[in-house]
Amino acid sequence: MLLAVPTILIVSPLMGFFAGQWADSKLGTDPWLMILGLTLGFGAAGRQIYLLIQKAQALDKEEDDQ
Fold first, then answer.
1. Rounded Cα–Cα distance for residues 41 and 17 (Å)
2. 2: burial class by Cβ within 10 Å (0-12, 13-18, 19+)?
3. Model confidence pLDDT, tens digit, residues 11-29
4. Could you say which of 1, 25, 30, 34 has the lowest number of CB atoms within 10 Å?
5. Complete DSSP assignment for the chain
6. 19 vs 39: CA distance, rounded Å
7. pTM reported for the whole predicted model
8. How many Å apart are CA 31 and CA 49, to the nearest integer?
């Protein structure tokens, strides 16, 4: 489960970057939406990693209890 962390750290910010870049090209707000998308991508990645770590700790604790 924790092997997904590097993928999350790469994919989420890249998706935000490209979505922001696309929106900037459509709206002419270069580079603000790209920066916002990148920031939101890092935030989403951090949240997902936090949730994965919580789930891994819960599974580890469950195994210890048995």
1. 8
2. exposed
3. 999 999 999 999 999 999 9
4. 1
5. -GGGHHHHHHHHHHHHHHHHHHHHHHHT-TTHHHHHHHHHHHHHHHHHHHHHHHHHHHHHHHHHH-
6. 12
7. 0.86
8. 27
